[in-house]
Amino acid sequence: MHRSTILRVSLFSLLVAATVLLGGCQFFSATPPTNTNQNAAVDNPSTDNEPITNEATTEDNNAIGDQAGTTIVENTDVTITLTAKNFEFSQKEIRVKLGDTVKVVFTSEQGFHDFVIEEFDAATERVSDGQTSSVTFVADQQGTFEYYCSVGSHRQMGMVGQLIVE
């Protein structure tokens, strides 16, 4: 081989080795995502009818920050704890992200009720005082969707809420 060919091959090999080494360092130095505590905000809904969202605390390792300083977990498993009493749900609004797998754990505190969102073909069983039922669905459509109780005229009497998929 010619000396210039050997030099080109050596430089090329050195360049490839440096690229692999730098890429490997960046890959292995990144913190891998964890699945701990990602539902902190939704597992503990407030009792003052504030919207339930899938926003997480800043302690989550797999969260992405936005310009406002809010940390939002994307494409997660979200558990919503929802209660019902005569003609009202504990939350009037629930917010999730497009693609989230949503599990609604529904409990009747008073009366005979269920939870229905037609667009996601999601419905719990009808339950009485102290009973619980759950339903899981993927929020695969963006928009605002009404959830309601399908028992008797409960929906017409205002037993409704909104699921907002962002």
Question: Would you write up a description of this structure?
Answer:
The chain has 166 residues and is α+β, with helices and mostly antiparallel strands. It is built from two helices and eleven strands. The chain has helices spanning 3-29, 40-43, and strands spanning 64-65, 71-72, 77-85, 88-89, 93-96, 101-108, 116-117, 122-123, 132-138, 143-148, 160-165. A four-stranded mixed sheet has the order 4-3-6-9, with no helix packed on it. Strands 5-11-10 form a three-stranded mixed sheet, with no helix packed on it. It has a two-stranded antiparallel ribbon with strand order 1-2. A hairpin with a 4-residue loop joins strand 7 and strand 8. The longest helix is centred in the first third of the chain and has 27 residues, at 3-29. The model is unreliable at 25-48 and 54-73 (pLDDT under 50).
Mean pLDDT across the residues is 74
Major sheet strand order: 4-3-6-9
Number of distinct helices: 2
What gyration radius follows from the Cα positions, in whole Å? 25 Å
What fold name goes in the CATH topology slot of the largest domain? Immunoglobulin-like
Instruction: Kindly provide the name of the CATH class of the largest domain.
Output: Mainly Beta
State the domain count.
2
The overall strand count is 11
The CATH superfamily of the largest domain is Cupredoxins -  blue copper proteins
Structural class of the helices, strands and pairings?
alpha+beta
What general form does the structure show? Answer: globular
User: Which sheet architecture does the biggest sheet show?
Assistant: 4 strands, mixed
